[in-house]
């Protein structure tokens, strides 16, 4: 899992990739992965009620791996999410609360469903070579987490804030006393997250 070899794409390439996705559900998934840095498993466990539209935040389900459960999103992500949600109702099974559902079953999308959809569009965009096992030839949902982390840091977000949004385990006892103000975190996020001009 060597980050130096993992493919990092530019902001322009990410813009092209997201805008090349011809399916609104898949576009919403890829955008959310890129703009929040969440893992695939965290993405599929999001329910409609976990989204706070006023605050533009999402509360993730408790996971052993994750310390902080709140992530933020920006206006362009909100726009695409709303577009997807307005179409979702026609496909979702009765009483299904999952944000992302399978087109076949109308039930919560599974791990491999995300992976398949993502790889399909990444391959089409020339970012992913399905026949190569080399890290630098592959572009998977985890690359979005790497992209998110790298671009927030390059845009000047304090490392502690990036760690907080990534939900990295708090290793040192001192971290428990280190309190990050939520509004500050959100402000910093909105200032540092790359804008992709999503259409």
Distance between the termini: 33 Å
Question: What is the element string, with H for helices and E for strands?
Answer: HHHEEEHHHHH
Profile the largest sheet.
3 strands, antiparallel
Q: Give the tally of β-strands.
A: 3
Which percent range fits the helix content?
Answer: 40-55%
Low-confidence stretches: none
Q: Summarize model confidence as the mean pLDDT.
A: 92
Q: Helix tally? A: 8
Radius of gyration, in Å, reads 17 Å
Layout of secondary structure:
Layout: H1 11-20, H2 24-36, H3 40-44, E1 51-52, E2 57-59, E3 70-72, H4 75-88, H5 111-124, H6 141-154, H7 159-166, H8 182-192
Antiparallel strand pairs: 1-2, 2-3
Structural overview:
This protein has helices at 11-20, 24-36, 40-44, 75-88, 111-124, 141-154, 159-166, 182-192, and strands spanning 51-52, 57-59, 70-72. It is mainly α and 199 residues long. A three-stranded antiparallel sheet has the order 1-2-3. The longest helix is centred in the middle third of the chain and has 14 residues, at 75-88. The radius of gyration is 17 Å and the shape is globular. The protein starts with 10 loop residues before the first helix and ends in a 7-residue tail after the last helix. The relative contact order is 0.20.
């Amino acid at each position: 899992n060597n980050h130096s070899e993992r493919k990092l794409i530019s902001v322009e390439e990410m813009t092209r990739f997201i805008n090349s996705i011809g399916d609104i559900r898949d576009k919403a998934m890829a955008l959310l992965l890129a703009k929040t840095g969440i893992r695939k498993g965290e993405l599929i466990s999001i329910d409609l009620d976990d989204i706070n539209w006023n605050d533009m935040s999402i509360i993730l389900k408790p996971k052993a791996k994750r310390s902080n459960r709140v992530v933020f999103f920006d206006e362009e992500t909100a726009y695409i999410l709303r577009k997807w949600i307005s179409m979702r109702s026609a496909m979702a099974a009765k009483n299904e609360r999952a944000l992302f559902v399978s087109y076949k079953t109308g039930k919560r999308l599974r791990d491999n469903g995300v992976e398949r959809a993502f790889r399909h569009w990444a391959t089409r965009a020339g970012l992913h070579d399905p026949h190569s096992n080399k890290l630098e030839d592959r572009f998977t949902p985890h690359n979005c987490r790497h992209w998110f982390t790298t671009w927030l840091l390059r845009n000047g977000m304090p490392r502690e804030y990036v760690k907080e949004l990534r939900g990295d385990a708090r290793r040192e006892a001192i971290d428990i006393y280190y309190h990050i103000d939520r509004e500050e975190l959100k402000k910093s996020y909105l200032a540092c997250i790359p804008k992709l001009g999503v259409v």
